[in-house]
Amino acid sequence: MKTVGQILSIERNSKNLSISDIAIELKISKSVIVDLENDNIKNNSDIIFNIGHLRSYSNFLELDTDTIIKKFKDEISFNVKEEKKNITPIIENNFFKVEKFFAASIILIIFTSFYFLFINENNNEINFALVPDIPESLEPIVEKANTFNNMSQTTDIKKNDLVNNSSAIASIEFDEDVTIVATLKMLNPTWLQLRDEENNIVLSKLMDKDEEFSYELKLNYNITAGNAGNILVLIDDEVRGKIGKYGDILDSFILYKDFTN
Hints:
434 Repressor (Amino-terminal Domain)
């Protein structure tokens, strides 16, 4: 059975394309293309970038991209399991077992006491990951977004009308005579890719802090991002909230004009 890398390499050669041709056309580093074709991609912090590059490469070769992505994820998962199986067990010296147990017990007691004294409350759910302080220039915008979030939680709206973090459903059709513009504003550096309805790449880059990208909502761009909590959504210059929580990875998210979050 051929691997994802072998499928890409065979298809590229059948089209008489070189790695340099692919790199120039897709604006992807040659080393990334070589790693993809050699199945040398690791399941690490760069995995979301590599999935985006693989999607672009597969679309360019006119392959079944959804099948390629699923097969790639299965291969990555299998390799991780194999690596765990090959780990050599560590033989622990039993000489300090008593001392280690005593030290671990002291740490556990201190941690438990600290938890019940300072942390344990009725409402201690963490909704967002910790991030650096937001620049002063963005504080009014983020404060407006958070206020909008609190108001939307107290409004009597049916759950089926809300937009979740993995997909969006339009409740009102677009008026063709009205142009509605969406703006994605970066609170922190974040990798962002936008594709049109035919899977053509519109934007694929690491966005800088405070950088923006605007487009007409009726274009129905698919949004893939490395950290949704760093992306602020404005529709016709009105702040609607963040596109997701900190740490969320988005894949093919479509934004509509009734978006609230």
